[in-house]
């Protein structure tokens, strides 16, 4: 058996996204007040300023779900070479990144929005490979 299954690129992309999304979700869970405070300040001049806790909770849930789907997907790639969960998780991670991009653009944090492009490209590459 190969260390990275028969899908080494897909597994590495999934592991990258799993770490990214589960760590981000865990950070929000472990320091909810600090994150809400930081994000409220970040969005104080945007149309999202009054919705920060709700939107942050939605992002938190989506990040955790995407990470768990991809984790299950890695397991399935190893055990049965099925990729449905991995693909769904990668697709959801791309959607979450679009949501984050919208937020960064509304907050006029163009540097932050630009940094999301790297994650988005990786997520799209994973979706492409898992869809092939």
TrEMBL record:
**What GO cellular component term, any one, is given?**
membrane
Location(s) in or outside the cell: Membrane
Q: Does the keyword Transmembrane helix apply?
A: yes
Any Pfam family hit: DoxX
Q: Which UniProt keywords apply?
A: Membrane, Transmembrane, Transmembrane helix
Q: Which residues cross the membrane?
A: 50-72, 84-104, 110-130
Recorded topology in the membrane: Multi-pass membrane protein
Q: What is this protein called?
A: DoxX family protein
Instruction: Recite the lineage of the species.
Output: Bacteria, Pseudomonadati, Bacteroidota, Flavobacteriia, Flavobacteriales
């Amino acid at each position: 058996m190969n260390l990275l299954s028969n899908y080494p690129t897909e597994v590495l992309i999934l592991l990258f996204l799993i770490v990214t999304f589960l760590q981000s979700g865990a950070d929000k869970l472990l320091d909810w007040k600090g994150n809400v405070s930081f994000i409220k300040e970040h969005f104080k001049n945007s149309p999202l300023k009054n919705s920060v806790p709700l939107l942050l909770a939605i992002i938190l849930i989506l990040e955790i779900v995407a990470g768990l789907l991809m984790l299950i997907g890695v397991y399935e790639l190893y055990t049965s070479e099925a990729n449905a969960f991995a693909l769904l998780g990668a697709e959801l991670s791309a959607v979450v990144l679009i949501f984050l991009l919208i937020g960064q653009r509304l907050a006029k944090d163009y540097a932050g929005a630009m940094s999301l492009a790297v994650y988005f490209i990786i997520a799209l590459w994973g979706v492409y490979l898992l869809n092939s």
